Structures are given as C-alpha cells and as structure tokens.
Amino acid sequence: MTASEGFLMFFKKKKGEVDKRMNQKNLDDKELIPVNKDDFIQKMKERLHDSADLNIKELPNGFTLIYFDTLTDKRMMNEDVLARLEDAQASPDEAFKHITVSSTSKHKYVDDVVDSMLHGAVAVHSPGHPVIISAMVGTQENRSLTRPENESQVLGPQIAFNESMATNISLIRRYLTNPNVCNESFTVGKQTRSGVSLLYMKGLADEEMVDRMRERIKNIQIDSILDSSILVQLIEDNSLAIFPQMLMTERPDRACAWLLNGKLVVLVDGSVQVIGAPHSFIEFFQSMEDQSVRWQIATFLRGLRIFSMVVSIFFTPIYVASLTFHYEIIPQTLLIPLGESRSKVPFPPIIEALLLETMIELLREAGARLPTKVGQTMGIVGGIVVGTAAVDAGFTSNILIIIIAVSALASFTTPNYMMGNVIRILRFPLIALAGFWGFYGLMVGFCFLLIHLLRQSSLGSPFLAPFYPPRFADWRDSIVRLPIGWTNTRPAQSRPEDKQKYDARKSDKK
Q1: By C-alpha distance, which of 31, 11, 9 is closest to 19?
Q2: In Å, how far are 172, 262, 324, 377 from 180, measured between CA atoms?
Q3: Residue 400 and residue 342: Cα distance in Å, rounded?
Q4: Which segments cross the bilayer (predicted)?
Q5: 143-201 pLDDT per residue, tens
Q6: Number of domains present in the structure of the chain
Q7: Does residue 126 sit in the same domain as residue 265?
C-alpha cells in the first residue's frame, strides 16, 4: 500500500466516524413516542396544530387512531384497519398482524409518525407501548393517462406521464421489465416534503454519475419543490447559463430510452415532466419519432431543425446588419424593391426589427396565456391585423414582415420547449449587436455563444459532445441518424459500463 492510499483510507475512516456520530446525535435529538395515551394525543394535537381535518378515534379495546380525514381513503380505513382492530389485543404486534394494508410500518419517533400521517397514513397507538404502527391508507386521486401535450407525434406510443409519481414509475417499469432498474427515494423541501425518485439501470449507468446526482439531490436546501422544472434548476451544472443542460420529457418511452443508454432519470411527485441527464446540445433537437421513421427521413428532419435554429437566431440580425452597414452584399435586383418598401419607414433597421420582434413576442405570449380556443383565434387574427396595419402605417417594411414571420416559424420546429424559449431570446441581443457594429458585432455574438456552449457541461459531461471533444462513433446518431443496425453503441457522454447495445453483425442477418 502506498502512502497516498494510506492517507486516503485514514481520511475516509475519519469521515465515516464523524458521519456516524452526527447520525447518532440526530437520533438522540428526536422526540420519542409518549407511552401514555393522553400524552400521545396531546403531543399529536400540538405538532399538527389541532387541525380541523385531524380525526382521533379511540376504540373500546384500547387502540387510539389518529389520521387526516382529507388524506385517507374511507373504504380502506373501515375495511382494512377499523374492522381488523376491533377484536385484536391492544399491542403493536397484534395491530401489525391484523391490519391488512400492504404498506405498514413501525415508528419510535414523533417526527416519523407525523411525516407518515402527512402522506396519508393512519397512526395506531397502543397504551403502554412506545411504538406506533402506521398503515398507509391514503387516497389515490390522479387523472387518467392521456396523450402527450407538448411532445406529440404520429408514430410511437401515445401515452404521457401524469402527476402521480407511483403511476409514472409503474409506466417505466412496464416498458423495462428488468430487475436492474434501480429506484432511490428522497425527500426534498423543508415545507413541502416532496418525494423525489432517482432511476437508473444497474450495470449500465456510471456509478460516479449516480453518486454525483445523488449528492446534488441530498444537498438541496430549499423550502419547496413543486415541479421538476424547479428541481432541474437546482441540480444542473450551471444554473446561471441561458441554455438548459438537462432534458425534461413527458413521454415514458423517451425516459426508458435514456435509461437504456446509461443515463439517469429523476421524477418529482406531482409533476408530469421527468428529468434526464446527462444530455448534449444536439439532443435538444432530436425527437423520439426519429427512431420510428426511416433513417433518411430522420436525418432530413434533424438537419431541418438545426437549419431552422440557425435561421431563427441569425436571419433578422443579418437583415439589420445588411441594411445598416453592408449594402454591398444585397443583390442589385433586390435593392429597388427593398428601397421602395423602406421609403416610408421612419425608423432605422434596428428599431424597426426590435419593434416588430417585440410585437410578435407579445402576440405569442398572449396566445399562450389565453384559453385555447380564444388564444388560437387571437394569435392568427392579431398577427394578420397587426402586420398589415404596421406596414400601412409605415412602421415597418413588407420584407421585414416576411423575415420575422420565417424566424418565428423556424423557432417552433425545436422539439424542446425550453430550448425554443432560448432561441427566441437570443435574437434580441444579436439584433442589437448587428445594429451597432454590423457583421463584426454579429460575429462577436456568435463567438460568445460558441464559447459559452463550450464551457457548459451536463452532469460533468461535455455539453457539445460528440462534436467537442470529437467522438466519431457517436456521430452515427447525432445530426445524422444512420440505420438502427449501425447504432449498436451507447453514447460515450453518459460513460456507460456496458458500451455495446448488441452485436451489429448478428443484427444485420435476415
């Protein structure tokens, strides 16, 4: 054993002893269950502030039941708890034996009992015993499974996650009937006590990444986690970056595809979106439908999305830079109609472009916030009326109307909502740079974006993989999607323990 290994083992041992002492101190600080029935009832009333929906039921044989009316299923309470305890002796072992609820636990501390009750359990106290039996009889209220709203597609499964984490995990396990699917549970939020689950495939996921994600979730210190979109901002590598570094999806098939590639999936109770990591920049422009169509069509669609992103970000800034500083790049046949279109416009190109872009964003945001039927009508009618009135009033030119419309249309081709919002925002600073410094400013903005992307990472993996650093094996399923028989390796970005999906030579045999 080397000296460095000896020092490492020494510090690990010391850290383990410190953690053990801290855990023992936390246990000592917890309050034990009162043995006396009246003391127990008084303690629970104090801890739960004698809430109006707190129900206390004392049975003739000595059992005392405490639960929340609004959180418990009345049928389960009557049939599986009350009816079973009527003839039982008042002891924790007898209660544990007679209650016919699958999720039943024993507790010694008041905090644990309160936490179980807040999740829908009934607490059963036996006089003279410092142990509480909790039986989970919570209501299972959730909406039925529906089609995906934000990731709709023609081919493939037509089912989406809902707000119940138990339902979402069951959907994943039905797709992946594999005992290697691991599920780790956490509680996050001092006030909400929200349930968070970390899923990964044992033998595929990199243990270092699992440890990193586990530590990030454990170290969260916040009052509430109400949705996965809040959690993802707390666990991603750089929360100050404008680009999202982790993907979210509402499709179970996509979450299963991530797990099979060695990635991690995080679920939040009450959220319809699940988080996946690590992910690269190019994956934000991929769709699950790309796997369901022919490889030529999938490659064309992916290339179209990348082209649309470039058009959406740079089309309007190029127009502003050309009219402000670089007339020489405009074809002569286009100069005359362009001059006639702008002859009545009193504003310089930068003000004209920013004004019209702001109007488009106002229409888009208003259409998204209004009810569905009203929002669609308002978006179409408002766009036509405002665009026509702006041209007639001389506020803008016809050509810019076309450019802005194409840029807005191109931004909708991005399959991911978060990345689509980023593309919408990036146009504004680039328009300003193009208006002040022309193509030089545009190049400065492009270089800044490229450097910013190069500096980002997703769960410690390069964000621009597989292009930087170059991993040529992963190019087969990036912008280009080669035939499925050729994509037999898992992406190196997730550092999977098993890199081969299958034997490519055998898969080609008919």
Answers
A1: 11
A2: 13, 12, 61, 49
A3: 9
A4: 304-325, 384-410, 430-454
A5: 778 888 888 888 878 888 988 888 899 999 998 888 889 999 998 888 888 889 999 99
A6: 3
A7: no
Tell me how many degrees the CA angle 368-370-376 measures, rounded to the nearest 5.
70
The amino acid that residue 409 corresponds to is L
3-state SS, one letter per residue, for 58-120: ECCCCCEEEEECCCECHHHHHHHHHHHHCCCCCCHHHHHHHCCCCCEEEECEHHHHHHHHHCC
Asked if 117 contacts 134 with a C-beta cutoff of 8 angstroms, the reply is yes
CA angle 384, 409, 277 (to 5 degrees): 145
Instruction: Give 283-334 pLDDT, tens digit per residue.
Output: 999 988 888 888 899 999 999 999 999 999 999 999 999 888 888 888 878 8
Residue corresponding to tokens 């440890």:
211
Q: What is the distance between the alpha carbons of residues 58 and 75, in angstroms, rounded to a whole number?
A: 18
What's the pTM value of the predicted model, to 2 decimals? 0.81
Cα 288 to Cα 281: distance, rounded to the nearest angstrom: 16
Task: Assess whether 190 and 69 both reside in one domain.
Answer: no
Closest CA to 57 of 71, 37, 75: 37
Q: How far does Cα 26 stand from its chain's mean position? A: 32
Query: Is residue 97 within 8 Å of 124, Cβ to Cβ?
Result: no
E strand residue ranges, 121-180: 121-125, 132-136
Task: Tell me if residue 301 falls in helix, strand or coil.
Answer: helix
Beta bridge partners of 58: 64
State whether 77 and 175 are in the same domain.
no
Residue 17 belongs to a domain: no
**How far is 70 from 122, CA to CA, in rounded Å?**
12
- Reduce the DSSP state of residue 238 to 3 states and report it: coil
On whether the CB atoms of residues 111 and 61 are closer than 8 A, the answer is no
Spell out a b/e string for 443-456, using b for 16 or more CB atoms within 10 Å of the CB, else e.
Answer: eebbeebeeeeeeb
Q: How far is CA 245 from CA 143, 250, 260, 456, 457, in A?
A: 30, 17, 20, 8, 7
96 within a domain of the structure (yes/no): yes
Residue where a domain stops, chosen among 245, 279, 313: 279
The helix/strand/coil state of 131 is coil
Q: Which helix (H) or strand (E) holds 114?
A: helix 110-118
Contact 292, 156 (CB under 8 A): yes
Beta bridge partners of 135: 104, 122
The CA R_g of the chain, rounded to the nearest whole Å, is 30
- Give me 59's structure tokens: 């049975």
Enclosing domain of residue 91: 37-136
Q: Which two tokens stand for residue 261?
A: 């590639």
What are the pLDDT digits (tens) for 417-462?
A: 889 889 989 999 999 999 999 899 999 999 999 999 999 999 889 9
Q: Is residue 59 part of a domain?
A: yes
Nearest to 198 by CA among 138, 252, 269: 269
